[in-house]
Amino acid sequence: MGLYDRDYMRERGKRPSPYKTDENKKLIIIAVISFILGFIAGKII
Predict the structure, then answer these.
(1) The whole model's pTM is what?
(2) Where would you find the membrane-spanning parts of this chain (predicted)?
(3) Binning pLDDT at 50, 70 and 90, where does residue 5 land?
């Protein structure tokens, strides 16, 4: 997964498109928030 992500990001870096970057930022933020919430929930349980 990590390697694929790095290659994908490198490819994206060559042809940046503001709309796609915005969408990706939203997805990353949502993923980070859900990961943190899941981690906290795991600690509590």
Answers:
(1) 0.47
(2) 27-44
(3) low
